[in-house]
Amino acid sequence: MPKCPKCNKEVYFAERKTSLGKDWHPGCLKCTKCNKTLAPGSHAEHEGQPYCNKPCYSALFGPGGYGHGGTESHTFKH
Ligand SMILES: [Zn+2]
Ligand SMILES: [Zn+2]
């Protein structure tokens, strides 16, 4: 029985969601940052943690993040 990488409990075949090469509970495959429920195969990943593509992954790790400056990621504050 595979174990869910999020909660470390066993995942039953009928309920598992396979993504990132691992088996997740449907309620455990969520964006690490914003907690949005993710669809297997259509989300981003960083160091084994699932993230939604937008806005979280592109904001955190994407090329340039917000804006078009590329290296201006430290100018986030309003
Ligand atoms: Zn789980
Ligand atoms: Zn997110």
UniProtKB/TrEMBL annotation:
GO molecular function: metal ion binding
Domain LIM zinc-binding positions: 2-63
InterPro entries named among the record's database cross-references: Znf_LIM
Signal peptide: none
Alphabetical keyword list: Acetylation, LIM domain, Metal-binding, Methylation, Zinc
Matching PROSITE patterns: LIM_DOMAIN_1 (PS00478), LIM_DOMAIN_2 (PS50023)
Protein purpose: Seems to have a role in zinc absorption and may function as an intracellular zinc transport protein.
PANTHER family: CYSTEINE-RICH PROTEIN CRIP FAMILY MEMBER, LIM DOMAIN-CONTAINING PROTEIN C
Entry protein name: Cysteine-rich protein 1
